[in-house]
Design brief:
Blueprint: H1 13-24, H2 35-39, H3 41-45, H4 54-60, H5 70-80, H6 88-92, H7 99-113, H8 118-130, E1 151-152, E2 159-162, H9 165-169, H10 174-186, E3 191-193, H11 203-208, H12 211-228, E4 232-235, H13 238-247, E5 256-259, H14 260-269, E6 282-285, H15 299-306, E7 312-314, H16 344-353, E8 359-362, H17 365-377, E9 383-386, H18 387-396
Parallel strand pairs: 1-3, 2-3, 2-4, 4-5, 6-7, 6-8, 8-9
Helix pairs in contact: 1-7, 10-18, 14-15
Bound molecules: iron/sulfur cluster (SF4) (2 copies).
One iron/sulfur cluster (SF4) binds at residues 30-36, 53, 56, 93-95, 97, 99.
């Protein structure tokens, strides 16, 4: 890599070519208008300077992560790993330049050199070893089903339910998977799981830059889907949704992918699910980046919430739907420990609290984890619930969430 003092005079054609080959060709479209920096959540955070528009130029010049000086390189690595892949910049760029893809290319080079943040190295290692980012044993993957009638998937069932690593293992998020199973039972849907045969979808390792690990996971999951004769896959996590729907087809997958909010809103429309118990609370819905901005699923979670008697749905003015502010968990952000006051979750929570809501409704286990942890840390008086949990309460009753 070129030394820092050589940056202006000796840009590296080799680095530029590597970056472009790894997916950074969009950099050539950029005309440096700067709009991306103004919509990036780091601009809202305000305590961290993140000049996003510089990345395309640095790519074209072959300057990304080019310092040989340890401290300078550490600063560059920190910047490259600040991006949470929310795609607010892609959405608002006049030319649709994909900055997170440009940065992912730089991350792939850094992963190859072993120069990336330690918490993310641990995530990659755990996923490689046991198939999940928490390092939990594979044989406990179906532990969330305890006491429920959840079967192993068999060909001919209507859907394969794929809960995502966080709801499979995390004691709080397991309630989302359990609520989902109860709703499926109420809707008389035949479904099953793969349990210990599931691997992480690989979204996080791909965004971290560990491309080879991602490809191994994708191939392993696809082979399990094919061996089990899986057609439709129902997912809780928008991260699994985006990966299975938009990235796995490149490796031979041809499954239909449904997010729980899509499936449940459809079942409500058909009259197969009837929310009947009152939920007399003011609820604000937080659009997750992967589900909303990146896959256009805005109405289905809102339709579920609107179908629940007594529930008052409110919105964050100016920061809703495609303008929703990221919670900061994507692209490895969930596993980073940025200081309080330098995190987008703090800003987003203020916006959500400003609506006067009693409950924050989410449709993503990453968002749930970010908000719950921060609500506890700040001792705030607001509940955080997945849409499936609220729906389950309304269909079955208050004690149904456990
Ligand atoms: S908004 Fe698009 S064109 Fe403008 S600086 Fe950012 S990436 Fe370049
Ligand atoms: S994807 Fe989000 S965090 Fe990354 S540069 Fe774009 S706006 Fe910023």
């Amino acid at each position: 890599m070129a030394s820092k003092k050589n940056i202006i005079v000796e840009p590296s054609a080799e680095i530029r070519e590597m970056l472009v080959e790894m997916g950074a060709a969009d950099a050539y479209k950029c005309y440096q208008c700067g709009k991306c920096a103004s919509v990036c959540p780091w601009f809202q955070v305000g305590t961290y300077e993140f000049l996003v528009f510089r990345f395309p130029l640095e790519t074209v010049l072959g300057l990304i992560a080019s310092s040989e000086e340890k401290e300078e390189l550490a600063k560059e690595v920190d910047k490259i790993y600040r991006c949470v892949g929310c795609e607010a910049c892609v959405d608002q760029c006049p030319l649709g330049v994909n900055i997170p893809n440009i940065l992912r290319s730089a991350r792939r080079i850094l992963v190859d050199f072993g120069s990336y943040p330690d918490p993310l190295k641990a995530v990659v290692r755990k996923i490689r070893n046991v198939g999940n980012p928490l390092g939990e044993p594979r044989e406990k993957r179906a532990g969330w089903t305890k006491g429920l009638k959840v079967e192993e998937y068999r060909s001919g069932m209507e859907v394969l339910y794929f809960p995502c690593c966080i709801p499979a293992y995390d004691s709080r998020a397991q309630k989302i998977a359990r609520a989902t199973a109860k709703i499926l039972e109420m809707g008389k849907i035949t479904y099953g799981i793969l349990g210990p045969r599931e691997n992480c979808c690989g979204e996080t390792v791909r965004r971290i830059g560990a491309e080879n690990s991602f490809r191994e996971l994708a191939k392993s999951n696809i082979s399990e889907f094919k061996n089990a004769g899986v057609g439709k896959i129902l997912v809780t996590s928008p991260h699994c949704y985006n990966t299975f729907k938009n990235e796995y087809p490149e490796f031979g997958a041809d499954n239909e992918i449904l997010h729980t909010t899509q499936f449940f809103s459809h079942l409500i429309e058909e009259g197969k699910l009837v929310p009947k118990n009152k939920y007399p609370k003011k609820v604000v819905y937080h659009d997750s980046c992967r589900l909303g901005r990146q896959n256009g699923i805005y109405e289905e979670p809102r339709n579920i919430l609107r179908s629940i008697p007594g529930l008052e749905l409110v919105e964050v003015e100016d920061f809703s739907r495609n303008l929703s502010l990221c919670c900061g968990a994507g692209s490895g952000g969930l596993f980073m420990d940025w200081p309080m006051g330098e995190r987008m979750v703090d800003i987003r929570l203020k916006q959500l609290l400003g609506t006067g809501a009693d409950v924050i409704a989410v449709a993503c286990p990453y968002c749930l984890n970010m908000f719950e942890e921060t609500v506890k840390e700040m001792n705030l008086d607001i509940a955080v619930m997945d849409v499936s949990e609220i729906l389950c309460e309304s269909i079955i009753g208050q004690d149904s969430i456990e």
